[in-house]
Amino acid sequence: MARTVPETLTDAPVSERVVFASLRARLPDPWRVWHGVAYSAAQTGTEGEADFVAAHPARGLVVIEVKGGHVACRAGAWFQDGRRLREAPALQATREAHALVRAWAARFGAPPPFPVAHAVWLTGAERPPREPLDLAGRALYAADLADPEPALLRLLAAEAHPLREPLDLDALEALLSPTLDFRRDWVMRRDLQDASIARLTEEQARAFDAFAEFRRFRVRGCAGSGKTLLALRQAHVWAAAGKRVLLLCFNLLLAERLRELVAPGASIRAVAVNDLFRELLGREDDGTPEFWHTLARDALAPARALAARRAYDAVIVDEGQDFSPDQWAAVQALVPEDANFLIFYDPAQNIFDRDPAALPAFGCPDAVLTTNCRNTRGVFATLRPYAPDGVRAFPDAPAGDATEVYRAANRPALRARLRALLARLIRDEGVPPQDILLIGGRALPNMALADVLADFPGLRYYTYRKFKGLEAPILILVDVRDGDPLWDRAARYTAISRAIHRLFILELEGR
């Protein structure tokens, strides 16, 4: 029986569980098998995941991409259960094998001295009379599940690179599944968990497909479901097609982050909606509440003029639930009649109490994203009671740490707790201060945090309103209190979901 990493597999697609069971039970020792090998651009030049890596010390290594269900190839295009695949399975397997070769060379200073083969395993298919050219000799089928070793040996025998020296399985395991003290090496732990979380879900893929079918479309997604990443991706698709794209959001910090992520030279402008309105009106903030109350209404006419000039061919709105009715009226006015218009929103994060009816409707069903791809399971367990029904964690999300909650009767006692926690994270565990974010419900002058921030350079504080749409590796919620209207259900849902890896909550006792 082959040794597998992990020893059991329960949380994976049926096709992968079937392959796992076959390889574990029917490959003899000394075969070794790894499932779900994620790799990052730092070592390989690209990012992705190999479904399986099977290795034999005297034969070599095989990278396997699994495709279950009904797989079909028509006119060179590949389909799985009726949905067109973005990449041919053989090309995906080839890329994964090349990534592993580059990772080995980066770790050991030379290419692997053993054959590296790749294959696509079509678990629900029989071998056809004639294989597609790109799969010829590189495919395994349902019949191979009964006895996989001959098929793997055939693949390795066909490789042009012979075995120059035995494959060191322990060295391979150190590369693919190292044993590390993650708590002492926070940066490595963070990077590994990032690679595990950041994957395209089926929901996201379906939404992305819909963007090509509908000129105007809405995507309703839970916190952490990848709305901003999809918005950026579609912006670049349209820009690559020659369109001028306007990418709007409400928060200034999110607008800054979007600008950082826009590819150099792309015809994409990312801007906060009020900054766009100020620009259209030629106004500067005069410090009065009336300035912001009238800005959107006054921007309506210049927005129409902008649309008439055809300044943008596509408009994308992120965090649409934050927009007021007046802002929506002006945004709709600036979209040319035949332009693309795409809106991402999450009604559960409506912390500004906007009118949901103001959100433009386009006459077709919304795409719905219910999978949280941001948080570890430890963070998601704290988020779940505040999330809408149906929201789930990404199936392969790392476990992470359980949320730690500290309570104190007053603010000075809670600040002492905060200092002790920061000392543990930064001085004992080696966490960079910039990976830690303090989140509260009130502006900084009202939080009595100036001394804390001065003593821990690099540490940041924001309200959850200002930090909406963004994320942080480690989040500390400060001065949370039951019964405080600033910490209602929507606020807690919005704030907690900002944490990627670890969450700490500092609560004031009483109401």
TrEMBL record:
Residues 16-108 form the NERD domain. It comes from the Bacteria. Gene3D superfamilies: P-loop containing nucleotide triphosphate hydrolases. GO terms for molecular function: 3'-5' DNA helicase activity; ATP binding; DNA binding. GO terms for biological process: recombinational repair. This is DNA 3'-5' helicase II. It comes from Candidatus Spyradenecus faecavium.
